[in-house]
Amino acid sequence: MQQSNRLRPFFENITFDRADNELILNFGPQHPSAHGQLRLMLHLQQEQITKAHPDIGYLHRGMEKMAENMIYNEFMPTTDRMDYIASSSNNYGFALAVEELIGLDVPRRAKVIRMMLLETNRLMSHLFWLATTALDIGAMTVFLFAFREREYLMDLIEDYCGARLTHAAIRIGGVPLDLPDNFIADLRKFLDKLPENIKDYEDLLDSNRIWKMRMENVGVISKEMALSWGCSGIMLRASGVEWDIRKEEPYELYDEVDFNVPVSDKGDNYARYKLYMAEMRESAKILYQVIDMYAETSPELMAHAPQYISAPKIDIMTQNYSLMQHFVLVTQGMRPPVGEVYVATESPKGELGYYINSQGGAYPYRLKLRAPSFWHTGILTDLLPGHYIPDVVSIIGTTNIVFGEVDR
Amino acid sequence: MRAYTPKDNVQKKPYYTDRYWVAPQVAKSDVSEDAVFSADLEAIKAKFDVLDAYIQVKQMVVVINAEDNYGVIELLKNELDYNQLSEMSAIDWLASEGKFEIFYQMLSMSKRKRVRIKCKIDEKESIQSVEKLFRSADWSEREMYDMFGVVVNNHPYMKRILMPDDWEGFPLRKTYPLQGDEFAQWYEVDKIFGKEARDIIGPENRDSARVDRYDTERFARLGHEVPRGADISQGEPDTPLVYQETDGVFMIQKFDAEKSVVISDRDR
User: Fold this and answer.
1) Per-residue CA distances from A120 to A115, A182, A251, A380, B240 (Å)
2) Neighbours of B45 (CB within 10 A)
3) Nearest to residue A398, comparing CAs of A381, A382, A377?
4) What is the ipTM metric for this complex?
5) CB-CB under 8 Å, A4 with B23
6) Which of A340, A358, A405 to probe by mutation at the B interface, max B CB count within 10 Å?
7) Is there a domain that residue A93 lies in?
8) Per residue of chain B (268 residues), what is the pLDDT tens digit?
9) Angle of the A389-399 helix axis to the A108-137 helix axis, nearest 10
C-alpha cells in the first residue's frame, strides 16, 4: 500500500482487479458530469455497478461554523455560495427563517419582488439543469439554447441587483431595492417567448431516441425510497408524492397565486425531466400573476422594526435616532429573541431548510443548513447498484445536485 | 496582562455587552392549542417519558430521554404518520451544561405538520441510530459524528463524511476555533510534503484576512513601496516617490506651454 503522505504518483483512477473479479472504479472527484467535486467509488461486475459509495466534502467550507461567527446580516452573502445556481432562493430561506424567529411581517411589495426573484431563480436553475444534463447525455444544441435563455435571466437579475450569480438580493425584513423601470417589460418579453423555447427543447428531446434510451426506466426511485432518503422537490414528486412546500405550507404570496404541482409516478429520469419542463411552465404562470400584483402595492420595501431592521435611507440621513439605530445594527448586529426555528422553503432543488437556534445574541448559537442536494447525493448509494456505468452520468444529471449545497 | 478568554467557547463574541439587556423570548404556546399536535403528544406520552413539550413557531417540540430516541421516532413513523426525517443534528452545550442536544426534525405530509424531537446526552455518551427507520439518517448521523464527535450506535458506516478520514478534532464544537486548530494548520503540509518539511514550509496560514507587514513578496503598502522581495525586517529604505509628471507626462511629449492657446469663448 502506498503511503499517503508523499507527493508520489498515485494512480487513483486506474481500476484494479480483485480476486472475486470485482473492479473498483473511482469516478471523480474531477469529473465533468459530476457537476462539482463528487467522488464515487463504484464496485463493478463487468459494467454493472454492485456497490456505490459517494464521497463528498471536497467543497466543504464550514458554512455552519462561519454562521456562528457572523452577525445575521453578515451571513446573507454567504448563503449565496450554497446553491449558486439559484442563489436568491438561499437568501430567501435564511431571511424567512430569521423573520419567523423575530416575528416580522414583510411589506407586500417586498413579497411581490421576492416572488419574482424566487421564480426567476427557479427558471434559471431549471434551465441550467436542462442545459448541463443534456450536455452530459450529448445534446449540445439544447445546452446552447438553454444557456441563451438563462443568460437573459441573469441579465435581468443583474439589472435588479447588480450581480449575476451570487445575488444577495434579499434582506432580512424585505428587499433592498425596488424594481428598475425596464424590469417588468423585459421579464414579460422573456415569459412571452418561454413557451416557444420550452417547445424547442422538447422537440429536440422528447422523441429523441438517444435521450429516451438514456432516460426512460433509468434511475427509478420508488416512493418509499424517496421518502426514506429525505428526498424533496422534483426528486420526490417524480416518485409519486405530491408535496410542494409552496402549495402545502405556503409562504409569501404563494397562497394567492394559481399554479399546479406537476407529479409523476414513474420515478425514473424521464419523469424527472418532464417535471422540470412542467415546472418551468408553472413558474412562468406564477410570474405573470405576480407581475399583475406589483402595480397595486404601496412602495414600502422593508419591514418597520427599529430594533432589528435599519430605517429607510431617508430617515437615516435626516433623523438622528434612526442613524443611531442603524449604526448599532451595522456594528453590533440585530439580536433576535431566544428561541429556535426551523423554516423550510421550496428551492429549485427541493426542501431548503434553515434551523436557527438563537440565544438572544448577535451571533446565532447554532445554524443548521438543510440542503436538499445532500440527501439527493446520499440516495446514490442505494440508487446506483444494478445500473451500468453510462447510467451514472444521467442519474447524477437528473438528481440535480449542486456541490456548494452538498458540502456547505 | 492578557485579557482572559474562556477556552470552552472560542467563537466570536460581541465586543459590547449591555449588562441590563434582557433578551426577549420567542413565544412558546401550549400543545393543547393544536388538536393534531396534542393527539400526537398523547400517543408519545402513552409509551415514553416526555420531559417537555410546547409549540414554537408553528412546530411542536418534544423533549424526551436520549435512550427513547429510536422508540419515539419509530412511533412517529409507523403510527403517527410522520413519513420524513428532514433533518437531524446536534447542538453543543458543553460549555454551559456539558451536554450535546440532538434534534430530529420530522415531517408529516398527510397532516402537514412538523415536529422536532429533542434529547440531551453527555459528552462521552452515544446515541442509538435511527438509520433503520429513515435512510436519510445514514448521512445525517455521519455528519453529526464528523462535526461534533457524537458516536452513533448501530450505524452501518460510522465514518467522517465532510472532513477527511484522518482529521483530528470536531469542527462544530464551540471549543474549535473558526480558523482551525494546530492540527489543521499542519495537515496539508504533513500530507503533501511530509513532517520533515515543516521547518522549510511553515504552518499554513488559515486566516484569510491576514496581512504580513514584512512580506514584500505578497503584500504592498501604498506610499511605502519597496522593491519586491526586499528585506524590510531591519527597517525599510526611504524610497522617494518619482512621479511621471516631473519629466513630462508620459503620453504628451511635445507639449509646449508657450504655444498653447486658452480657449475662453466656448462658442468660438
Assistant:
1) 8, 15, 17, 29, 55
2) 12
3) A377
4) 0.86
5) no
6) A340
7) yes
8) 677 777 888 888 888 878 888 889 998 999 888 899 999 999 999 999 999 999 999 999 999 999 999 999 999 999 999 999 999 999 999 988 999 999 999 999 999 999 999 999 998 899 999 999 999 999 999 999 999 999 999 999 898 999 988 899 899 999 998 888 889 989 988 888 888 889 888 888 888 778 888 888 888 777 677 888 888 888 877 766 666 666 666 666 666 777 777 777 767 5
9) 170
Q: Pick left, alpha or beta for residue A341 (phi over 0 → left; psi -120 to 50 → alpha; otherwise beta).
A: beta
- The grid coordinates listed for A370 are 438543510
How many domains does chain A divide into? 1
Distances (CA, A) of A394 to A28, A61, A214, A399, B180: 15, 28, 7, 9, 38
User: Does B112 sit within 8 Å of A375, measured CB to CB?
Assistant: no
Domain that holds residue A392: 63-304+332-407
What is the grid cell recorded at B119?
434529547
Whether A366 and chain B come into contact, CB under 8 Å, resolves to yes
Take residue B25 and report the three cell numbers written for it.
423570548
Considering only the beta carbons, identify the residue of B14, B83, B160 that sits closest to A362. Answer: B14
Nearest to A148 by CA among A124, A121, A184: A124
CA distance B101 to chain A (A): 11
Orientation of helix B69-78 relative to helix B35-47, angle to 10° = 130
Which pLDDT belongs to residue B119? 94
Query: Are A54 and A378 contacting, i.e. CB atoms less than 8 angstroms apart?
Result: yes
Residue (of A368, A302, A245, A326) closest to A104 by Cα position: A302
As a whole number, the mean pLDDT across chain A is 88
Q: List the helix and strand counts (H, then E) for chain A.
A: 17, 7
Is the pLDDT at A149 greater than 80? The verdict is yes
pLDDT of residue B227: 80
- Written as nine digits, the cell of B216 is 514584500
Return the ∠ at Cα B141 (arms to B139 and B144), rounded to 5°.
110
Whether A390 is in a domain gets the answer yes
**Which cell goes with A227?**
421518502
State how far the Cα of A147 lies from the Cα of A153, in Å rounded to an integer. 10
Q: Residue B149's closest CA among B141, A294, A268, A309?
A: B141
State the alpha helices, DSSP H only, in A206-319: 209-215, 223-228, 234-237, 245-248, 269-294, 313-318
**Distance between CA atoms of residues A292 and A181, nearest Å:** 15
Which amino acid is residue A170, in one-letter code? I
Select from B26, B103, B109 the Cβ nearest to the Cβ of A339: B26
Residue at A20 is within a domain: no
Domains of chain B: 28-153 (3.30.460.80), 177-232 (no CATH)
The count of CB pairs under 8 A between chains A and B is 139
Q: What is the pTM of this model?
A: 0.86
Q: Tell me the pLDDT tens digit for each residue of A347-396.
A: 999 999 999 999 988 999 999 999 999 999 999 999 999 999 888 988 99
Distances (CA, A) of A196 to A152, A230, A403, B2: 15, 35, 31, 69
Q: Is A41 helix (H, G, I), strand (E, B) or coil?
A: strand
Q: Would you say residue A326 lies in a domain?
A: no
CATH code, domain with A97: 1.10.645.10
Per-residue pLDDT of A316-334, as tens digits, reads: 999 999 999 999 999 888 9
The continuous run of DSSP H or E covering A138 comes out as: none
Give me the pLDDT at residue A1, please: 41
Residues A142, A155: Cα–Cα separation, whole Å: 20
